[in-house]
C-alpha cells in the first residue's frame, strides 16, 4: 500500500514548523559552543530532553518495559543515536559552517539505505537505490570540495566527523528496527535519551569539568532551544507529522532543513558557503528523491531514528 499522501494545510504547516525547528538547531548548538565544550553541549541536550520526555511519559501514564534487555538496548541506542552523532557533529561545527553541517547531515538517509541493505534481507540494493546512493555520495563529495579531498586538514577532519555522525545515525536506525520494534515512540525516545544521559553527563564532567548553569543568557537560551524544542518537542512533533503526512512526504523535511540552517548561518554568524556546497546539496537532494521515488518502497521511519541536527 502506498503512503504517498496529499498534504493538508495543517500537515504542511507542521511539516514546515518541524523543518524550521531542526534547521535552527544547528545555529543554537553553534552559539552554545562559543562558551561551553562539546561534551557539555551534548550533556545538556540529552539530559534536559530526557527529563522533559519523562514528564510526558508520566503525564500520559505510558507503560514502561520491564525486560532488562530492552533497557540495555536503550543504552546502545543512546550511544549510536545521540552520544556519537551529537558529539561528532558538535565538534565538526567548531571548524565548519552550520549550513555545511546541515547539508552533510542530510546524508543520513544515504547511509541508512546502505546499512539497511547490509543488515536486513528485505532491504536489498535495487538499481534505483544504487543510483540514488551514488548521486548522494557525489553530492557529499561535491559539498566537501575536491580541494578538501586532496589536501587533508582540520576542516576536512571536521567534515568527516559530521559524516561519521550520519553513519552512526544509520546504524542506530538498524538497531532500533531490530531491538526496539513495537515500543511506543515516546517510550523508545525516553529510554534512548536516558541511556544517552547516563553516558554523556559523567563523560562531560570528566572532559569539560563540572556542569554549571552559570552561563551567559544567550548560551542558556541556546541550550533551552536545542534541548527542549529541537530535541524533546521536535521528536513528538516528528511522529505527529509522520501520522498525518506519511513517510514519503517527510522527506520534504530532510530537504528543507539545510536551507533554513544556511540562511540562519548567513544572517546571524555571517557565514558564506562555497558554490560547491550548494551544488552538492542539489545532487544530494536528487539522490534522496530517487531513493524515495517508488511508492511502495519508501525510506522507512525507524523508532527514535533522528535525521536532523
Structure description:
The chain is an all-alpha fold. It has one domain. 77% of the residues lie in helices and 0% in strands. It has 11 helices and no strands. The protein is globular, with a radius of gyration of 18 Å. The two termini are 31 Å apart. Mean pLDDT is 87; it is low at 294-306.
Summarize the structure.
It contains eleven helices and no strands. It has helices spanning 9-33, 38-60, 68-93, 98-105, 108-119, 127-144, 146-150, 154-179, 185-208, 217-269, 275-291.
Report the portion of residues in β strands: under 5%
Radius of gyration over all CA atoms, rounded? 18 Å
Give helix and strand order, one letter per element, not per position.
HHHHHHHHHHH
Helix content: over 70%
Span between N and C termini? 31 Å
Rough shape?
A: globular
**Number of beta-strand segments:** 0
Number of structurally distinct domains: 1
Structural class: mainly alpha
Summarize the main sheet. Answer: none
pLDDT averaged over residues: 87
Low-confidence stretches: 294-306
User: How many H/I helical runs?
Assistant: 11
Record the SSE blueprint.
Layout: H1 9-33, H2 38-60, H3 68-93, H4 98-105, H5 108-119, H6 127-144, H7 146-150, H8 154-179, H9 185-208, H10 217-269, H11 275-291
Helix pairs in contact: 1-4, 1-10, 2-3, 2-9, 2-10, 3-8, 3-9, 4-8, 4-10, 5-6, 5-8, 6-11
Amino acid at each position: 500500500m502506498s503512503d504517498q499522501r496529499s498534504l493538508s494545510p495543517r500537515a504542511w504547516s507542521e511539516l514546515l514548523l518541524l523543518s524550521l525547528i531542526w534547521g535552527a538547531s544547528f545555529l543554537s548548538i553553534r552559539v552554545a559552543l562559543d562558551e561551553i565544550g562539546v561534551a557539555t553541549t551534548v550533556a545538556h541536550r540529552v539530559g534536559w530532553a530526557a527529563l522533559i520526555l519523562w514528564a510526558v511519559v508520566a503525564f500520559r501514564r505510558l507503560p514502561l518495559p520491564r525486560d532488562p534487555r530492552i533497557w540495555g538496548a536503550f543504552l546502545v541506542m543512546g550511544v549510536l543515536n545521540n552520544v556519537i552523532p551529537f558529539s561528532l557533529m558538535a565538534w565538526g561545527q567548531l571548524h565548519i559552517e552550520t549550513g555545511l553541517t546541515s547539508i552533510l547531515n542530510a546524508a543520513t538517509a544515504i547511509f541508512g539505505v546502505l546499512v539497511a541493505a547490509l543488515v536486513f534481507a528485505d532491504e536489498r540494493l535495487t538499481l534505483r537505490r544504487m543510483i540514488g546512493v551514488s548521486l548522494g555520495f557525489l553530492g557529499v563529495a561535491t559539498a566537501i570540495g575536491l580541494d578538501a579531498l586532496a589536501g587533508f586538514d582540520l576542516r576536512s577532519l571536521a567534515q568527516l566527523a559530521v559524516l561519521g555522525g550520519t553513519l552512526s545515525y544509520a546504524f542506530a536506525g538498524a538497531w532500533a528496527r531490530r531491538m526496539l520494534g513495537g515500543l511506543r515512540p515516546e517510550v523508545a525516545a525516553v529510554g534512548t535519551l536516558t541511556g544517552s544521559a547516563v553516558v554523556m553527563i559523567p563523560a562531560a564532567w570528566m572532559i569539560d569539568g563540572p556542569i554549571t548553569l552559570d552561563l551567559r543568557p544567550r548560551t542558556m537560551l541556546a541550550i533551552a532551544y536545542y534541548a527542549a524544542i529541537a530535541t524533546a518537542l521536535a521528536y513528538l512533533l516528528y511522529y505527529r507529522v509522520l501520522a498525518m503526512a506519511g513517510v514519503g512526504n517527510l522527506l520534504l523535511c530532510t530537504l528543507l532543513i539545510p536551507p533554513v540552517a544556511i540562511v540562519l548561518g548567513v544572517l546571524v554568524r555571517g557565514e558564506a558557503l562555497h558554490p560547491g556546497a550548494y551544488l552538492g546539496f542539489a545532487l544530494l537532494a536528487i539522490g534522496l528523491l530517487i531513493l524515495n521515488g517508488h511508492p511502495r518502497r519508501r525510506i522507512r521511519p525507524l523508532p527514535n531514528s533522528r535525521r536532523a541536527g
